[in-house]
# Entry
Amino acid sequence: DFRVQVEHGGSTRSAAPPDALCTQAQRVVDSVGEELLYARVDGLDVGGQLQLMELEVLEPDLFLQYSAGAADRFAEAVLAGV
# Structure
């Protein structure tokens, strides 16, 4: 069992994954076949290859604090009906 929630002693921090992993994660999101307002790709970097653990499309914590203006962009997207 692997838990990262704050209530279980976990923590979060901002990180910048390599471009190649971001490209692979984007392919996972694109494979859904419809536009998503929110998606988080959870995975492991195994020798430069993304090993998918989970595609999260419903999240109670959106981690908006890690990107300046993220809350405003998210609210605008919701209002636009994306």
User: Anything to note?
Assistant: The chain is about 30% helix and 20% strand. The two ends are 35 Å apart (CA to CA). The helical segments are 19-30, 70-80. Residues 2 and 33 are 30 Å apart (CA to CA).
